[in-house]
Every structure is written in C-alpha cells, then in structure tokens.
Amino acid sequence: xxxxxxxxxxxxxxxxxxxxxxxxxxxxxxxxxxxxxxxxxxxxxxxxxxxxxxxxxxxxxxxxxxxxxxxxxxxxxxxxxxxxxxxxxxxxxxxxxxxxxxxxxxxxxxxxxxxxxxxxxxxxxxxxxxxxxxxxxxxxxxxxxxxxxxxxxxxxxxxxxxxxxxxxxxxxxxxxxxxxxxxxxxxxxxxxxxxxxxxxxxxxxxxxxxxxxxxxxxxxxxxxxxxxxxxxxxxxxxxxxxxxxxxxxxxxxxxxxxxxxxxxx
Amino acid sequence: xxxxxxxxxxxxxxxxxxxxxxxxxxxxxxxxxxxxxxxxxxxxxxxxxxxxxxxxxxxxxxxxxxxxxxxxxxxxxxxxxxxxxxxxxxxxxxxxxxxxxxxxxxxxxxxxxxxxxxxxxxxxxxxxxxxxxxxxxxxxxxxxxxxxxxxxxxxxxxxxxxxxxxxxxxxxxxxxxxxxxxxxxxxxxxxxxxxxxxxxxxxxxxxxxxxxxxxxxxxxxxxxxxxxxxxxxxxxxxxxxxxxxxxxxxxxxxxxxxxxxxxxx
Lengths: 265, 265
Hints:
The structure is a homodimer.
Chain A: E1 2-9, H1 26-38, E2 45-46, E3 55-64, H2 67-72, H3 78-88, E4 93-101, E5 111-122, E6 135-137, H4 143-153, E7 155-158, E8 174-185, E9 188-195, H5 202-214, H6 220-229, E10 244-251
Parallel strand pairs in A: 3-10, 5-6
Antiparallel strand pairs in A: 1-3, 1-4, 2-3, 5-9, 5-10, 7-8, 8-9
C-alpha cells in the first residue's frame, strides 16, 4: 500500500528536510514516528528537499508499506493515518492530508512542478510574529525593477547562473517558470514562483539577485547577462532561508500546460 | 522627558507582561535594556498587563527620564531611541514607534480603551505556523450563536461573571464594549472586541463562554443569565492565552465617542 501525504512544517524547527548526520530533519521526524507505528523502518520520499529554515505549506511525501505491515495495522483508512501521525509528530510538523496513491506514484518523480513563495517585510521594524518567517529589508527597493525581472525569468531558461552548487550541476539546468509575480500588501511583499522544477537554491539566488537590482546594487542588464550567460556574479547575494515557503508540489497536467509560455529569448 | 512607546511581542517568548518572581517578562526585558542604555534603573508603565502566552501588536508603554539622564545620553530624538532599544531587545519583542509624551501622559491612566482580538483556527489540523498563535477547535461550532452573543455583550454591562479573579474584584466591574464582531475567512475565525476597559481575563472568559454556547454545551439563555446575574458557571471554560492579541491601546477621544451605543438592557 502506498500513501501520499501533504505535510506542512515550520522550517525553523528542523535542520532541513532530508536526513543528515547532525540535527533533527523533517525526514527524521516522520520516519521516527512511522517506525513507532509500523514497528519497522519505513523510508519516506519527498517531492524535493528544503534547506534548514525553509518552510513548507504543502510539501508532498509518499511511503510504501508491505502487505504484511498493512495486515498487522488497524490503520486502514487515510483519515486514521493522519490522526495517528499527528498524535506523535511535534506541532511544528503537521500532516494536512493523507490519500492512497497508485502504484506508479512517486512524490519526487511524479511531480510536474512546484510553487514557491518568498516573503519580504519592507519596513523599519520586523514585527515579532514575522521573526524567522520573512526576510527583513529596509531602505530603497524599486518594486518596478522586481516586476520587470519577474517577467524576464518567466518561461524556459538555463538557470545555471542562479544555482548554488555550480560544482555538481544536474544534467540539464534548463527549467521553465510558468508564472512569477510580485504582490504587495503594505510592507508585506511576496514573490511567487511556479515552475516545472527548481535547481538547488534557485529561488533564493533569484530573489537575492532581484533584491540587489531593486536596491540598485546591480543593474537590470547585469541580471539579464547573468541569466543569458549562466555565470553567477562574483558576490551573489542569496536571500535568507527564513523567507522561503514551499507552497505546493504539483502533480498531473497542470505543469504540462503552462499558463504562460513566453517565447524563448 | 517622557517617552511613549508602541511595542509588539510574541507572547510565547515571555512569562507575561509584568515583572514577577520567576521567568522573563516583557517588563524585565525592557527595563533590562533601559538600564543598560541609561545606566540606572528606569521603571516602565504599560497600558495594562497581558498573561503569559498572550501576544501584543500594539501595547503602549511609557517611561520618564530625569533631566540629568537625558543630558548624559546622545539619544535625543525618538527615532534613535527606537533603533537603540531594538538593537538590544530580542527579535520577539520590538519597539514599533517612539514618540515624546506630554507631562500628563500615563500609559495606563490615560488609556481610553483597548482593542483585543481572539484568533481561532476551526479545522481538523492546526497548521504549524499557527502553533501558539491561535486556538485550535474542531467539530460543531455554531457561528450564528457567536454573532448573536457578540451583539449581546456590546454596550455597558457588569462583566463580573466573566472575570477570573472573583476574589478581589475592582471597585467597579462595569465595562463598555463599543464593538464586538466575528470575522470568518475560511477556517480562520477572529473575534474582535473594542472597549473602554477589560477585567482580568475578561476576553478569554467571554470567548471561552461563547465557544461553549457555539458547541452547544451551554445555551444562549445561560450566557445571558451569566451576564445579567454576574455569576460564572460552575465549569467556566477560559479560552487559551495563545489565541489572544492585544491589538491596540486607545488614547484620546475615540473611546469617549463609541461607534455603537446600545441601550442598557
């Protein structure tokens, strides 16, 4: 039996998504609880990793149980799985939804895309309730530049110039951003990015560069060149993890029928 | 020189507003930083206390400095005070605004009223980002009853039946609520109360009782009787601190010219 879970977490409570040698990760927490419930190690698979401090509102994971494991558990329906898992998990990590998944489903390989959101508080003082939940900026910030850059990065591009692990790049560094937009509500700015996939730290590198342009530390032309040539700037600013939210992992046709397909540059 | 500060804090980081024998309070944190800056003990006065876990978005405090203290400090203008205080305070406690106050101003005695908001998340799962920032309810909740009770408690009433310290009541337990309203946005419910003053734990007692009625554990008539007779129920539910926000302390004419003046019952 394969189960698909939508989970949400407060990124400040974990050392990122994926298990590692030090510190508690989201994967550790989930596998720890699953081992308690099932009585054996069960490996989970996420739609992708998130860095330490990065939040998730709709991360998707899956895991599989053998016929024998299912047989020994009284947790037959999805609703009871949700309740059982949440009873053991910390309040900073919640299972929002559980559904049965088909045999061919894989949280990572079946994903057709993702939506990320980056939150910025643009005012003198960061309110205490946004501490570790938004990036804090004050001073000059030209929002028109950010809007311009949002449109520039939409569509398919080679984003190798906005990837943190330039040492070991994946086979292809071309990704398609379907929609990128800035929303402003008072001092609260959020940049939403929907795409078929994201390179390592790509959102934080993009937002960091956008902010550098909006602060007039870099020009729109320098941004455009970085996108065209695939070379990061000598001092690329990476936006802090605490402003980043994985909003949703997308499955099915949505990702294959982009809402906006700008022409290739 | 008297300074008036608007401060905000995450209630989970403090053992309430007022200094006490155990644990760090908001007052302790502020007076600690002031002592560092001024070099002497400076006492602060708040518009009122908040319990441990209760949040503030717009708490008002004041403190006074002697001519000699002012003389020795380079912090002449309000803006520099804000920056200096925030530089020392933890990110869970922020000074939002600093202004010079007249000699007659007193954060508590000059206040003409307050606005509180109580946040409830009414759905199966409490999202991790609302942990300790909203009260979590699931199951039957008749919002029409809550709306009815919001209207019922508007106006001047003797609220002694909704006060926690029935042992040592203040001289008068009559308070006027100018506006009480419920707003629903999906699973997010918030009850906002604006009044000329609030008894000890009055908001949490009122919300707790409203929820009991909305869950059909108590009737509207029982609520009405409690309000009329001033006697708390044998098992009065007090809504948890983590859902409560002190939105604003009011000064000046606003409180004296209520927006709604219902007739006395």
